[in-house]
Every structure is written in C-alpha cells, then in structure tokens.
Amino acid sequence: MRSFMFLTLLLAAICGTTAQHVHLDIPEVEGYVQSMLGEFNHYTRYPGPSPTYWKHPSPRPTKPAPSPPANSCAYWLENIKHQGIAAFNPSPSTYQVFRNVKDFGAKGDGVTDDTAAINNAISSGGRCGPGTCSSTTVTPAVVYFPAGMYMINASIIDYYYTQLIGNPNCLPTIRAFPTFSGGLGLIDGDQYGANGLGFGATNVFWRQIRNFIIDMTLVPSTSSVTGIHWPTAQATSIQNVIFQMSSNNGTQHQGIFIESGSGGFMNDLVFYGGLNGAVFGNQQFTMRNLTFYNAVTAIDQIWDWGWTYKSITINNCSVGLDMSSGGPTAQSVGSVTFIDSSISNTPVGIKTAHGPGSQPPTAGSLIVENVALNNVPIAIEGANGATALAGTTGQTTIAGWGEGHSYTLNGPNNFEGPITPVSRPGSLVQAGGKYYERSKPQYQQYPVSSFVSARNFGATGNGHTDDTVALQAAISAAKAHNKILFVDHGDYLVSRTIYIPSGSRIVGESYSVILSTGNFFNNINKPQPIVQIGKSGESGTIELSDMIVSTQGQQRGAVLFEFNLNSPLSSPSGLWDVHSRVGGFAGSNLQLAQCPTTPTVNVTAANLNQNCIAAFMTMHLTKSSSGLYLENIWLWVADHDVEDPALTQITVYAGRGLLDESQSGTFWLVGTAVEHHVLYEYQFAYTRNVFAGQIQTETAYYQPNPSAPLPFPYVASLNDPQFPSLTAIDGTVSIPDADGWGLRIVHSNNILIYGAGLYSFFNNYSTTCSNHGNGEVCQYRNFEVISSNAINVYNLNTVGTHYMIEVSSTLGKLMVGRVLTGLQVDGQNVAYYGDNVDGFVDTIALFRTSS
User: Which residues form the signal peptide (predicted)?
Assistant: First the structure.
C-alpha cells in the first residue's frame, strides 16, 4: 500500500508541481517514471509468450479468416482520393498523410504476422516516435485499417499526431498470437524506454483510435496482457472499440491501462471479460457509453483528480467501479461523477475507501445520479468493507447520492448519503430522462459519391496560398448539392471570415487547420470571426468534426469560432473533435523565436510583446444561438512551443476563452477544456440550460506578469470581468487577484457542471505557489457566481487557488471562509481551500445555489 506522503509527491510530480504541458525533467518526476512499471507491476507485468502455447485451447491460427462481403464493407474514407498534405513538413510534396496498412504489406488474413507492416505504416516518413521526439505538428498521419483480422506478435507502437482508424462497417480485428512477445499493450500509445515513457504523458495531444476489435483471447489467461496502453492528454479520443479478453477463472487480461496524463475523452467502448475491463489513472477524463461484461472488476480507478462517467453499463462483474485505491489512510482517487448509468448482476456496484476519518479529507468524493441497479446487493461499499449504501437483489434506481464536502449554501458540510438530484431542464434530456448525447458521425452509411473534397475547388491547404475564396466555394457547393465536405489534411490560410451555413456537414482529416492571417482579423476594437457558423437569426443544424482553427501572427481581433445558429432541440448542431490552437506550432509565427517568456521583466502595456497578441476570443455562442452539442473540444492557447525539442515555454496572449451568452440556451459541453486566456476560460452570461462535464481549465502561466486584463480593453457589452485590485492579502500573504477566471457564471440559470478541474499552477512561470503545502497562493479566486440561480457543480477540483468560489449578493446566507455571515455583497469568498484538502488538489463534491 502506498503511503499518503508518497502518493502526494507522486501525484504532485506527474500532474501539478510543474506545468501539465511542460516537459517534465525535474528529479521527482524522473524518479517517478523510472519506478512506474514497478509501482503498477500487477497491471503492467507481462512475462511474454507461454512456453506451452501449443497446448493452449486456441492455438496459433493456420487458416485464413474468411473475408466479409465487399459490398457490406464499403467505406468512403477508404475509397476517396487522398490529397492531404503536411504544409509545414520539410518535404510537403512527398510526405504521406493517409496510409493504408495494406499498402505497407499488412495482410489482415488472420494468419500472417502483420506487426512489422503495421508499425512501418505508422513510422515511415521520419515521423515523431516515442523516445526520439517530444512532439510536433508537422508529421500527421491517418493510418487506416481495411476490414480484416490483423495478427500481431508484439505491440503496435503509436506515434505522435496519429489517427488509427478502422473500417466502421466491418470492424478490423487486431489479434494477438498466443506467442505475443510483449510490449505494454497490443496498441502501445506511449512506449516505455530506458528513461520512462517515450512521450511526456501530459503533452500527448491530437490523436485518436477508432473502429477496432482488440482480441486478446489467444493469449493465455494467466498472462497480464493489455489491449491499449493510453497515457494521454487533451484532444485525444478512443471511439467504437471492442475489447475481447479471457473470462476464465484467474484471468489477468485488461482492456485499457492508463497510469498518467491529462486527458481526455473516450466513448462507445465494449469490454468482454478480463481481470479489469479498464484501469484508469489520469488527472481528469470524460468517458461516455462504456459497456462491460463478465470482468472481475469493470473499472479499476487507480488515481485521479476528477472523472466524469456517463452512460456506463456494467453486467455480471464482481465489482463495478473500484475507486478504493490507496485505502482509507491514503486515498489516491480525488473525485468521481457517475451518472445516467446501470449496473446489473454485480455484487458490489461501487467500492470506495471513503469514510469517517479517511485521508486526505475530501479524497474519494463521489456523486451518483440516475443510476439503475439490477441485482446489486451492495450499491456502494465504503471504507474497510462497510456498506455505505445498500443495494438490492431486485431493481432500483439511485436518484442521487454522494459523499464528500458540500456547500448548499452553507459549508463545508461533510456528508455521505442521499442528495436531491438536479432538476433537469427538459431541453437537455432525451427519452428516459438521460442527458442528450450523440457520437461523432463517421458517415459510414454514405457512399463515396456523397462526398466532395475541398481540393477539388482549388483550396491548396499549403499554408502559404490564400484559400479563403476556394474554401468558401467548397463549403457553399457542398451545402447546395447536399454533399458532405471532406477537408483533406492541410493548413488552409484565410484572410476573411469563413461562413458555414445551416445544413453543412464538414469532416477534416487528421485535424485539418483553418489558419487566419492578415489585417482583417487584427483590429482589437472590431473583432471578426474566423469561422462563423450561421448568421444571426439563421436556423438549422451543422455537423463539424476533426478540425482545428488557429491564428497566424498578430491577430488582435480574431474570434476563432462564432456560433449563431438556432438549432432545434430535436436535432442540435454538433462539433466533435474540433479544437483551437493559438500559437506554439509550425506556421503560427507565434513560436519560441517570436514569443519567448520574460519572467524577469516587469511586463507593462508599454513593453508587452504586441506581436504575440494572437486572438480576441476563442469561441462565442451568441445571443441568438441555441442547440449546440460540443464533444471532446480543446480550446488551447499554447503555453509551450510544440515544435521545440525541449518544449520550451512561450508567452501568447488571447483575450477570452468560451463565452456563452445565448438567450435561449440549451448547450451540451461534453469533455471540454479551455486554457490560458487572459480574462477567463469559461463564461456563462445571461444564459440558461447548460450541461457541462468534465470541464477543465488552466490559468495563463505568465500571470500576474502582466495581470489581467492586459493587453485587452474592457468591453462592457461582452460582460467582461473587471479586476479592481491586483493582489489580495490573507494574513501576511499577498496573493494575485487579477488572474483570469477559470469559470464565471453571470446572471444565468440552470448551469449544471458535472465535474470541473480549475487549475492555477503558476505565478509568473514559477510553480512554488502551487507546490503542496505552500498555501495555494497562485490565484486568490478562480470561480465566480454572480446573481445566478439553479447553479449546480458536482466535484469541483482546484489547484493553486486560495478561495475556491466567489459569490454575489443574491445567494442569501453563506459560509464565507470559515465564519457564517449574513447577506453577502458581491465578491465574497466561499470555500477556503484549507477546508477541502484532497492531496494536491482541493475538492468540493457538491456546490449548489437556490433554485
């Protein structure tokens, strides 16, 4: 059992004491990665092939697997002409973006060892591999698997900026021989080397795995083989994957193993068998529609800060979710939000280590809402085997239950027991009362004739030619002819707004980039959208996936996304795997050479680097808009240069993160993150009816040098925050009080947050302020509620923030700090961090205002 002190240092080292996106080379971290395999030995130990594999019930296959009917497997992505280019690769004319593994010699016949061919398809072309490259955007790849059974005898090694995509109409199978020689995972997303993980897990961005069967059933059940090893960070996903494992007594198989990172999103996964269907440890994650059959433990949660599970189905397991890691004296799971799910024929639904006197005090925070049980005798098991919530051998539904600290409105209250569930607005739910959800469309039902390519309209994507006219023509023509627009990989330079009308369906390739440039986007007093989705008063829906919007150079008036559509509740618009990237990449002209950090210089309006003012706002949900589903969206202002081998920090300024001021509301933010903006990351102003979870933020690393709002002027019409004081005093300690807000809720109703991580790691690039035990003095406050009702936040986790919540006058009597007071005026502090300690983070399980 790991001691609390070791656990605190371990989690602080890998996840917070330094920037989550900065190359981790301090001694504590080096020691951690060196000991990782030993620390998690029972998850990672794979002894190699069985010496008696011929006696295994399923010996090495010798007959080719039958081929499915060709017509039933036709998939447009396999058949469309591939014209993608890596615009800023050293050899863009010869570099290959799309790779079909069969073009590299893979057979997929169920007999041939395809390991080398698949790894060659991934690695060829001088790509960024683990242990040889930290990160880059100039070697993207789509590695495509046609239908077939691909036999492997060693791990498939994933590379940076790679999309592994199978045929969704006939899922390809990746199957391990019984002689599988090891590597951590049939697919290893971050291969270990002599110095630990090949990529820093918190810096692994922009990658996907989707549409596969991962088959481990030939490997002896006594071998601890893993399906996918996936330490990962933002803008990553696994979708539509089936894991087949042994269900024999004593099985040691596991489907997914994650031990570190800063994720992330997964959905539509099915797990059969195994000791552990999945083993998860990461700062935060959102996971939706995971189904487990016949595992010993469906989900083994080894550590986290915050985790949101939605639409989880667990069948015939011994334990559904085990979040008891570390035991009651050293809990390593910070918080879990578990909603809209079901558990059947499982003796223990959820196992925790939380209980009276458990440590850290708020670790093991748990919220359960709308979870159906069928023959689950113990719904929730607490510390030392005590029954926290009895289950049933029949059927029942947990409407609402939780444990941890609450502020509703007074606090902190240490609670364990039933809670009143959120009164869900009808516009946010689907049949059965669950929150609406929809997976990214892959358009597998459409023939290739239903698609048109942006290249066919003259768009070059070469990062140098102005593609505004050609790209707009492609979008307009696709809409007019009811086609789906395929934006081949590239960097599409635009000098005017790109308008996406209702009815558009657009899909990118390995995150195709729309890159703004020029004076049109450079007037800070007249901001202009780069991508405008609908116009004010326009109704209808759009679908957009696998794209990035970015800026090039100084773009002081750029609004990366402006959403104006009024989409119907019956058919909301959707953005899936769509991200922003401001600075820090090849072609941005906002890299280390242009935007170095200056922590030893007192930055003022007079000497601030004007050339690195790169965006006015990242995403604007306007007053006329409504009905938008966002899934796996990362709005990132770069804190480091992705192309620099040392991942050196940079200073780039973008004013505002995500602003929602829709008057009608109705938005779903599923697995979203917003980072490093000047004024705020998320702001909900005069809006209503929002589901959001998990959300995650980081305060800009350079703040308070300069403090907000510099370099952006105050705009009252956008309900900008004001920063009347630069510092706040608590006793003898001076704390920055003019850093950007992580989350602001202003004159809004029914803002429903199902898991939030609001992180402030830095003070002028120093992490001393967030080091464990240093008083959380990076930022005075990070979450503000002003004159709003029916605000519900489950599992709020903060780092480096002295007071976790600020509230306005309309909320009545509140526990301010640690003293109960009467009616409050605007700007009073609620929830002192020291009352809610959860190891490196601070956690409140439930914050709720009046309805």
Answer: 1-19
